[in-house]
Amino acid sequence: MTAAEIAQQSVYRGAWIIFMLANICVPIISLLIWRTALANGAQLPVDERYITTYFVLLGFVTMATSSWMAAFLANDIRLGKLSSWMVRPASLLVKFVANNLSEKFLKVFALVPMIGIVWWIFRDSMNLPADAGRWALFAISIVLGAVLVFTIDILIAALAFWMDDVGALVQARVIIASVLSGAVVPLALMPSWSRGFVDHQPFRYTVSFPVEIVAGQLTGRDLLAGLGIQLGYVVVLGALARLVWAAGIRAYSAVGA
Amino acid sequence: MTPVHALPPVIAAHDLTKTYTFHQQTAGLGGALKSLVKRKYETRLAVDRITFDIGRGEVVGLLGPNGAGKTTTLKMLSGLLYTTAGELEVLGHTPSDRKHDYLRRIALVMGQKTMLWWDVPAMESLLLHKDMYGLSTAEFDRNVAELAELLEVEHLLNVQVRKTSLGERMKLELMAALIHGPEILFLDEPTIGLDVVAKARVRSFLADVNRLRGTTILITSHDMDDIEALCSRVMIIDRGRLQFDGGLDDLVRTAQPRKLVRATYATPVDGTRLDGLDGVTAVDVDGQTVKLEADRERAGVVMEQLTRLGPLVDLDVADADVEDIMRDLFLRRSTLGDAS
After folding, report:
1. Do B113 and A1 touch (CB under 8 A)?
2. What are the ABC transporter domain coordinates in residue numbering (chain B) (predicted)?
């Protein structure tokens, strides 16, 4: 199914390049702004190497853990398009999982060369752990982050079983997540009074935490605790999404002929 | 051959009921603002305690005016909707459980919704179904070859779906729905929007599928030609209630117990001689042509009278058109319903 999705989506190859250019522009601009601030003597709780590594990796992690499913799934529920999938012997979400995986597959082709160039430019001022274990944890954390984002999307989209339009919720989630996930400003730069909340809220584990594993500053204990919390969120939100989804299917009205 | 009704039913519905809850909003800005603060919810009974059995291999037409409850019934049978009350068993399953074993044995085709992916050739969707339904390559190839030949779509399998015409797309939809050899096929307006040639092709294909594979077919359609061509049995649903369940012939006899007779003569005739003839109504004489309606039991006597009117050139005796019968039936019911 993922292969079929790739075949379908590769029709829009031009769009992928533009998407990815947009995806990498914000981190690069942020990187340049923060480096300039540091060069001008700004006092930050992190150094230039951390900032540089953070923003170089940010574009990749954001892409890898992102999901655009909520709006599509909500639309399918609202317009009754889910019906076509409900009469087939497969998970209803299989289409969206395949769509998500194929999206990632195609984005990697467009994004990796761009990140490679930025990486090469800043290669001397980045923290790159020599330890293969850290890179393995980075990969695991990205997978968990992707599952977490997907689960949050299902939860939001499932509200369309009861609400006429979840567009506002989807938009609110995008705005909140962009701040709380660390996609705009590194969470390490958030005010100290907000630390307890910022460090433990779920959005941190969708983007910031995987990047932090490589960018540095996390002790072995922090790493284990972080992965535990990330896994916990995946399990709890996954169970909640399952419950809401099952209740939603009961309320589904399969609009339209 | 075993009679259809001697076998256990593949579909058994008892007091099947479905209600929908929705909110009402008055038009205009005022209504919109009011609905922001307070919403008035209403419950609508879409299907009201209907009971029926369908045997294996039957082709049954589900008829009724718009909003009568026939599509809701079809959606409950295919597992898309939970029932509000009543019992429903299809192929030994409760459809709303949507067990994969059940879904593998049915198919649903909705004339207004596509099951195919638009941006890729239909073959991609068929291959997806091959995996989803666990078909072996040999079985898949055999089914593709058989269905493509019956539907005459061999040349379309590798064309992007969105580049095909509506008629071609419907044929491909049917192919995708039948590739796994379902035991029951639910069809919701399968010929909607198709031209006469495409409609005829789809009808003859469905008849072939029923004859060759023994597939049970339940079809909703507003096109009476679909029903006449395919269905030996019809169920009429109106305002959620099952108003009629029986053979199409029975329906015609019950709803319109008269024969339509048209006689053409070599010379103009005097139709007044038919006035007052027992069992004859609505006589219309136009020069050399006489049109009238006669009671079935009196048809023989009427024919005899007609041969005496003048030199007969042509005589045509027919049942009333099913389309007209349905229109009269729905109009009468809605008038009665409105009056009550």
Report:
1. no
2. 31-264
In 3D space, the residue among B42, B82, B83 whose CA is nearest the CA of residue A252 turns out to be B82
Interface test with B, best of A5, A85, A88, A255 (most B CBs within 10 A): A88
Question: Rounded to a whole number, what is the distance in Å from the CA of A70 to chain B's nearest CA?
Answer: 20
Partner B, chain A 65-84, Cβ-Cβ below 8 Å: 80-81, 83-84
Q: Which chain A residues contact residue B119 at CB under 8 A?
A: 8, 11
E strand or H helix that includes residue A210: helix A208-215
Tell whether A257 is within 8 A of chain B (Cβ). yes
Location of structure tokens 């294909």: B205
Yes or no: say if B321 and B284 are a contact pair by the CB < 8 Å rule. no
Q: Looking at the DSSP assignment, which residues form a beta bridge with residue B233?
A: B60, B247
Q: Do B75 and A83 touch (CB under 8 A)?
A: yes
Domain of residue A192 covers 2-251
CATH number at residue B247: 3.40.50.300
Q: What range defines the domain where residue B287 resides?
A: 257-318
| Cβ-proximal residues to A232 (8 Å cutoff; 6+ apart), any chain | none
User: What are phi and psi for residue A114, nearest 5 degrees?
Assistant: -65, -45
Give residue-wise pLDDT tens across range B47-74.
Answer: 999 999 999 999 999 988 888 888 899 9
Alpha helices in B122-247 (DSSP H): 122-132, 137-151, 166-178, 196-213, 224-230
- Cβ distance A155 to A237 under 8 Å? yes
Alpha carbon of A79: minimum distance to chain B alpha carbons (Å): 11
Give CA–CA dist B201/B178, Å, rounded.
16
Q: Give the residue on B whose Cα is nearest the Cα of A85.
A: B115
Measure in Å the smallest separation between the Cα of A82 and chain B Cα atoms: 9
Query: For all residues of chain B together, what is the average pLDDT?
Result: 84
Distance CA B212, CA A2 (A): 35
- B198 and B262 in a single domain? The answer is no
- Scanning A92-131 for CB atoms below 8 A from B yields none
Diameter over CA atoms, chain A = 65
- Cβ–Cβ under 8 Å, residues A21 and A114: yes
Please list, in sequence order, all residues whose beta carbon lies within 8 angstroms of the beta carbon of residue B266, skipping any fewer than 6 positions away. Answer: B288, B310, B311, B312, B313
- Is B124 in Cβ contact with A8 (below 8 Å)? yes
Which candidate from A4, A80, A81 shows the least CB-CB separation from B124? A4
Q: How far apart are CA A72 and CA A92, in angstroms?
A: 13
Cβ atoms of B70 and B237 closer than 8 Å: yes
pLDDT at B334 over 60: no
Q: Is residue B60 part of a domain?
A: yes
Q: How many domains does chain A have?
A: 1
Q: What ipTM was predicted for this assembly?
A: 0.73
Residues 6+ apart with CB under 8 A from B146: none
- Which of A10, A87, A161 would you mutate first to test chain B, the one with the most B CBs within 10 A? A87
In this structure, the answer to whether residues B184 and B261 fall within a common structural domain is: no
Low-confidence ranges of chain A (pLDDT < 70): 1-13, 16, 19, 255-257
